[in-house]
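ERR on first pass: missing label on line 2. Operator R.T. fixed the label and resubmitted. Corrected input:
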Amino acid sequence: MSALPPYASTAQISWYYGFRVICALIFFFLIFPIIVIMPLSFNAEDFFTFTPKMLALDPAGYSLKHYQDFFTNPDWQQALWNSVRIAPVATLLATSFGTLAAIGLSQSHVPFKSAIMAILISPMIVPLIISAAGMYFFYSRIGLQGTYWGVVLAHAALGTPFVIITVTATLVGFDRSLTRAAASMGADPVRTFFKVQMPLILPGVISGALFAFITSFDEVVVVLFLGSASQKTLPWQMFTGLREQISPTILAVATILVVISVVLLTVLELLRRRSERLRGLAPS
Amino acid sequence: MSSTSTDHMDAPSDGIMRAADGTPLKKSLARALRREKLRSFLLILPLLAFIILSFLMPIADMLFRSVENGIVKETIPQTVALLKTWDPTTGEAPGEEVFAAFHEDFVKAYKDKSHTRLGLRLNYDEPGMSGLFRKTGRKVAKMEPPYKDAFIKVDKDWGKVETWAVIKRASPVLTDGYFLSALDAKRTSNGIEMLPEKERIYLFLFKRTMILSIVITVSCLLLGYPIAYLLANLPLRTSNMLMILVLLPFWTSLLVRTSAWKVLLQQQGVINDFLVWIGVIDDANRLIMINNQTGTIIAMTHILLPFMILPLFSVMKTISPSYVRAAKSLGANDWTAFWRVYFPQSVPGIGAGAILVFILSIGYYITPELVGGTSGIFISNRIAYHISTSLNWGLAAALGTILLALVMLLFYVYDKIVGIDNVKLG
Amino acid sequence: MKLKLMLLATVAGVAFAAPAVTEELPPCDNCSDSMTIVSWGGAYSKSQLKAYHEPYQALTGITIVNDESSNEAVAKLRAMNEANNITWDLVDVEGPDAVRLCDEGLAMPINADELLAPAPDGTPASEDFGDSLISDCFIPQIVFSTTFGYRTDVAAWNGKVPTSVCDVFDLENFPGKRALEKRPKKNIEWALLCDGVAKADLYDVMATDEGIDRALAKLDTIKSDVIWWSAGADTPQLLADGEIVMGSTYNGRLFSVIEEQHQPVAMLWDYQVFDFDGWIIPAGLPEDRLNRVKHYLRFATDTQRLADQAKYISYGPARASSAPLVGKHAELGIEMAPHMPTDPANMKNILVNNIDWWADYSDDVDAKFQAWLAK
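pass 2 clean. output:
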């Protein structure tokens, strides 16, 4: 979409601008719902719309009370604490298993490679409600339903496909002669892995871990079925809140989560650039 | 790997290439290959075992539950054994012998309260069985022989052939009953029959799930195509900036976006307030955009749009602008150049994006549950209902199995188009 | 009708409050030091927290984990039973669910006189609770009713105010969205009553397929204007937000919208449906946890505690002896009597939920209702 040539006809000019207006509207559709909750979360009233005071930018129309509620209400705090307790452990499991498997899969002679790949990716493909149903039935049978480890294992399983995909992607550009060089200079495989391979694929591992983390941190369907009250996570609390008593505190939580996503997004972008630089690929 | 070195000067004269240690090169290579295979397999093994245990076995368990039917035989074993020789086509209810065995089974079942569970199970096949079992349970301990009369005295249904035919039909340890229910059919003495029109629900829900998913996929395509096109054709710096607007919603919690739409779409919500304020609608006629299909379509289109844009974008990025330029220099106008040259090259992206959005859409649960009311819910909501409210787990499993089969089929198509290891994120 | 008499006795006592009697709590031997209590959430859980949990925790120092899963209690208890891993210690359920759980062997049968404290005057618990002991496993707490609330500021009604439950079905005079529960129970009864079925014939008509079809046909007339709720807090929220003009819910929820949040909402008591709500103990608890639950229950269901709960929410205590102890709302200071479902002024037309009928028929009616709902 290069700039308009000087000889463009009226139709071309109007299409050129018309197209940009359409795109701007679609971008608006994408981003507006996320933006709109932010000011609303500072509403001094318990409403979900802009009060006249807010529209007049009167400071009295704004307050931090919903944030205060989030940080003082034991239900929300417990939910936050549970999320913080579950997500990192699930991430750790998913990342370590996933990275090893991705390295294994990237070797040139893996028997049944595509079948194995299909199995490992399946948690991402199967609709969550089906995973949740199956895990609910099965974990009930073996006594993991309603336990901390049940939720952690389920979340780890859901997170691994992301790790596999991102790490495999970094390994595609990985120069195999580097490990060979290390080996020929007498490094054992473990040392080669940590000193040569790991630093190079680290960006992929970290972004996979971020994906796994957000999968667990944002997951509600499985935890709804598998968890009990003592595993009530932040999304679960939001879900009940939305279904039952939709308090503006939800918008405050939502705003905080958006800020977290922005941070994660930035980290990911930086990692991507670093990875490309390290692998000597031109930034594309 | 070092053992595969071949620069060995004094090879024996038999013509076989040998490795440094004197083993034939072929053998040495094969051994190295085996070792490499083993090593890669060992690397994969922990995850493979983990996924099989924590994920595939649950799925297999669900598949099994959709046909499992041990409860009848476990609860009333003697009755089931005796009913084998009873023929419902004679038009006669079973004799005293069966009733006596049934009484013994029932008393035992009543003690551990499993009779109500059996009643509930049989109720799936024939409405009224659950009530019958509960009612009989309250009186069974005081019954005196002859038992046939005693049972019929509690409820005359015990004297009917159909009651016993239902029990006989439900006796096998595996059943297709849940799958039949999931397809709005049931087994009667005349074979498989569809349920009466007004009680059919699942085929209808599957159809609705499909139609709404198609609508959502098409809206995603209509909104996603221009964006992907713009991003793929803008200078890198600008497109990177604009890409953030796509990635931010992608990274934002699903519940955050769903709550945002709830806030926007309510009757007293932001959009209605705005429309009233600018005078498009009056206060009494606010638009109803939530708790119905409109709500589901709008919210899910927004949520799934990035999944359409990203694959489209990665395909369009590879389309060289020189083709369009060539077409134009050969006399095509803008539209022809786009439609005949650019668009066909973007079709793989459309295929990938559309299938991805469709697969994600037909399994959605949270968003329809929160903004869909009753007319905007999907088959997943029904599965959840059967798991946690009606407790008909067999039916939930059967519905889940059908949905899973559908997704697998679509995924197979996706694999053919895109390739399973070409999935990219962000 | 004995139940009605008991309810009236409850009311009679509400007017005057007697001084509280504090009982010395006996020590608890071989008891776990934390328990998970499952309840409904919202204002109701808060009333239990204030009246039962907080005083009990203050006296014993144990931890109480609250789980708001009562609306899924039957499913979750079944899953726990299957796994042989009961994570709940005490579950708050409605009467019919208690009957079902008891029937299926998922709840533990109790002996009321052994487990529960007698009334202060020595009346045994079984007599004091009377008719509210509807199942061998059920430990009653409250009498509640399901009734309608409506907004008092609906312009389209031209000043008219709904006075009969049948006004819910009258879209001409009372246009606007209404909220009904996403379950057949009560909706079927109201629909038939408003379709001309006499109260005495109600459950006989409902026992036929035609009766249910007739009720669904009546509901069909308003279906496009109904928002279906599944949690008790939905209707109050929707009323407060102006998303609906009227809706059914539990009377205590409406009380908090009207008296605590001062929303323009009023009660429509016509044909309120009475129900009991109470505790069940899951079957198969290990001994130390069972001891703790028993210890807690003896405290939390005594005469004073049940009366205390009524100071936070407008539900009638299930013990006859608690009634005289209920007085003013603990925080608002208003007289609770006129807000009780059992107040004579509110009881002109009532329906008592036929628990046995629903136990026998609910699976069939529910399947039909859900199929109807999905279309």
